[in-house]
Amino acid sequence: xxxxxxxxxxxxxxxxxxxxxxxxxxxxxxxxxxxxxxxxxxxxxxxxxxxxxxxxxxxxxxxxxxxxxxxxxxxxxxxxxxxxxxxxxxxxxxxxxxxxxxxxxxxxxxxxxxxxxxxxxxxxxxxxxxxxxxxxxxxxxxxxxxxxxxxxxxxxxxxxxxxxxxxxxxxxxxxxxxxxxxxxxxxxxxxxxxxxxxxxxxxxxxxxxxxxxxxxxxxxxxxxxxxxxxxxxxxxxxxxxxxxxxxxxxxxxxxxxxxxxxxxxxxxxxxxxxxxxxxxxxxxxxxxxxxxxxxxxxxxxxxxxxxxxxxxxxxxxxxxxxxxxxxxxxxxxxxxxxxxxxxxxxxxxxxxxxxxxxxxxxxxxxxxxxxxxxxxxxxxxxxxxxxxxxxxxxxxxxxxxxxxxxxxxxxxxxxxxxxxxxxxxxxxxxxxxxxxxxxxxxxx
Length: 444
What we know:
GO terms for molecular function: siderophore uptake transmembrane transporter activity. The chain has 444 residues and is mainly beta.
């Protein structure tokens, strides 16, 4: 079982800038729009005396992500709309390792990686039975060209990057049936395709490193459940309960690998569970109660005997979140001012770091509180106290017969120790005028 120790000389800094723009044109029979995005990011990780990793580290990673997506929706016949979405993405990652290890292969750690992805999706939205039944068959095609191989002498000594093309086809069918006003049945089934993210491929955080050789994750999923939604009023309710199951191939999972965590592909896996959520608004929204609960039953289907049948790492069996908030909108000389005060409780059952179920992360329960100030529905200031009770450690018994209970730090699902009581502040300014809610909206 790993333990936590303070790293006094290690530093991690991230600077990122993101811009998203949307252009939309609407007419009586449908609409077209374009979504464009640019992300530039630099991550600098310094471990000058090897406190976290196996050796000294001074790595600067720069990433550029360009995205464009034209899409549209048009009526094709009575009760039917056809939606089309296309997207293209270009990603560039440049790694500059200034403290290259002097290993036997003489690898520098430097590397330039590129990936170009294109996708095309088609969806038909058909309404029947006077709108009570909605069917949504869809299909999506994804093509990725990855240029991850590096010249000899570059990259890490164990670099697994290679040039390859991946293709994924994802058909899906969704259904919604209105049983009565405010009560509907929803279900979907289909395939999915998920390529690894840049963090999973090339991230280096000392205690967690990327894996250039990851394969895209694929699988089949089924889900179905009930949704309850009442009209907006002094008292309103939105709730849903659903069951789901997913069979995955090459599932991407973060696992314990020596002194750090690294994402790997698990040959086969199954994730099944139940999910429930509810949002209750009272007194016209002055009092709100929200909560969600997830029950998971996971199974590793890898051929490795030590992994077969074990629970998947990083996925606790039980997760619960509850929030209560109270506030009221006041008119201050013609300007709206709304303070809100609330509290949260979150619980996560134990989970594991490795696919063999040997390294355990103990359960945790954390309490928090927050204060929000909203002015003119445009300026939003939030003060949040996390881990209000200052929980820092948990009791854990090693999975060896006769082992005594030991004290370990309360941590996240990577076993990175969580802080004690901490204060977080957020300031958001909306430049666009707030939209007036429509009478058909439901609380989320």
